[in-house]
Each structure stands twice: as C-alpha cells, then as structure tokens.
Amino acid sequence: MFQKFLSLFAATIIATSQIVLTAAPSIAASRIKDIANFEGIRDNQLIGYGLVVGLNGTGDSLNSAPFTKQSLQAMLERMGVNTTGANLNTKNVAAVMVTSNLPAFTVQGSRIDVNISALGDAKSLQGGTLLVTPLMGADGEAYAIAQGPIAIGGFAAEGEAAKIVQGVPTSGRIANGALVERELPFKLASMSSLRLSLRNPDLTTARRMAQSINDLIGEPVAEPLNPTGVRLTLPRNFNGNIVDLLTDIEQLTVEPDLPAKIIIDETTGIIVMGQEVRVSTVAIAQGNLTITVAETPQVSQPNPLANGQTTTVPRTNVDVSTGEDQKLALLEGSVPLRELVGGLNALGVGPRDMISILQAIKAAGALQAEIEVM
User: Fold this and answer.
1) How far is Cα 226 from Cα 216, in angstroms, rounded to an integer?
2) pLDDT tens digit string along 200-221?
3) For the chain, which residues make up each domain, given as ranges?
4) Was domain 31-38+188-254 assigned CATH 3.30.1450?
5) pLDDT in tens, 53-64
6) How far apart, in whole angstroms, are the C-alpha atoms of residue 204 and residue 207?
C-alpha cells in the first residue's frame, strides 16, 4: 500500500513538472540555422559585362560612350561583319553590367536570376534583350552564361516640353536568365569538422549554442572559439556524416544575448534601443530658445485728391520663447526599456531632441549602453 502511494505521488510530481515546463516556453529563442552560418554553405557573387540590344532609341550615345561603340564593333567582327571605318550611330544598344549570386552547391545546368544595370547614358532598358554574357567569379573563371529579355520595374516617357520617369528604367532583371556552366568544388559530406559563424557575434550566444549542441549529442562535439565562431566536430560513433549532424542541430533553439546598444540615424531621426539599455538615476530638463520673426508689410494709400504716393509700410512682429514651461523630469536608476522610453516621451520632445538628450546622458556617465551613430 505504501509503495502504491509513492508511485502515485511520483506520477503526480512528474505530471506537474511537465505542465510547468510546457507553460514556460523560452522567450525570444531562435533556431541555430537562423542565427549562424555554416562554413562552406554560402553564395558566391558573379559579375559580367555585356550588351543589351533592341532598345527603342533609348540606348547609349555611341559618341559619348566609347566603350559601347568598341564592344559593338568587336561583337560584329566576331559575327563576321566588318565595321572598320564605318560610322556607327545607333541608339538601340546599351552597355550593361550583369550581376548575380551563385548559390552553394548549384549543379551544372541549373538556372539562376541575374540583375542588369546600365553602364552608359542609356535612358531606358525597356524592351531590350541581353546578349550572351559570361559571368565570372572572384577567381576570374566563368561560372555561368546569361542571356534573355529584360524585365524592368519602371518606365520613362517624354515629349518636347514634358518628361515623366517612374521607378528606375535603367536597371532590370532576368528571371532564370543565367545557365550555370561550372560547379564550385566543395565536398561538405567528407568533412569531419567545420565552423559555425554567428551573424551577430557574442560570447554568451556562442557558449549557449555550443552547450545546446553538446546536450543533444551527449558529448563535447561543439567548442566555442570566439564571439563569432563555434567549432563542430563529427563524433566518432555518430551514425552519419557531417550533413546528418548539421540537419540534427540546425533546429535547436538558442536564446541570443544582445549587448546594450542604441542605434541613432541622425539623417532620418530614427532611434533604436536594445532591451538591455539601462540608465542611472538622472534628472533631465529640455528647453529651447525659439525666436520667431514675422513680416507683415502693409500698403499705405494717400487721401483722395492728395498729391501723394502709395507706399509699403513694414510691420515686423518678433516673438521670443525660452521654453519656460519645460520641467525637470526624473528617470529612476536601472529602469527597463519601456519605462525609459516612457520617461523620455514625457518630456514632450521630438526624435532629434531625444538624440541630443541620449548623447548628453551618455556624456554624464549615466547611460549604460553603447551609442552608435549611423
């Protein structure tokens, strides 16, 4: 009977603990695949130079774009057309730069998207077709060939006295416009170890990620190296290769740790604060000296039948405001972000004045955060 009571009590404790664990999910936790990059799994940038033909008189002026003229002559000569001494004056051709990203492990024969941007003084690429253009990597080797009609997101129209331009008609895109001709030699499955690179470097996050991986595998296969990287080693008794291991760990959730930082964009007046920003007890007063000068000139007319002239009499109204209605506001020490923002908003100041206030608090040593001005 006593053993039956203990079994029932233990079952109740286990059920209660499961309810508590279920009711308290981790806050702001992210998957490892969303906060880290795996070594070798990345895009590669490609670039090429080509010609777009078929434009309706909106191409480059050959006299002001000599590179377009030289490229057109070289292309025609390769096609068996001799243009030596000829006066080329077409405006249906434009020189363009072609860019693209080659995804990791893209096989030969696959297609990728390409972006087209005018290089000369072309007014629009609407209706144009890109001719065969090799796309090269950083090593100078051609990895893809681009060709096809261009789709643009803007247009330009003009007459003798008016012109309208919407969007950017000198850049466009070709969906699946490049054919991959060469694969990148990288064998991920044969690797026994690789590095995981955090997108937002942080020592605490790197350690948490390594601990989460080790808890899943049951042995120390992950080692934090620095704020950016964690080295992952394939266990000796693991039933699979490094790809299987990455598949198992990329769904693990880790709560990233963020530094106390304030981002300020003085151009637009945007302020972004992290949740760990804290302020020591400080009193703030904000007041502006505003001088308003209003000119309201009046016209003075002479009396009827009088020998006078109509004159303008100046009238100036000067108003001075010293912001005397502004009061001192007290911000308590170590307040959370919500109360900090509420206290600053209570001062009734705009974003640009708030930037000056945050910088003044930082100069006083009362702001425990880093300010980064963009």
Assistant:
1) 21
2) 999 999 999 999 999 998 889 9
3) 31-38+188-254, 44-180, 259-287+323-374
4) no
5) 999 888 999 888
6) 5
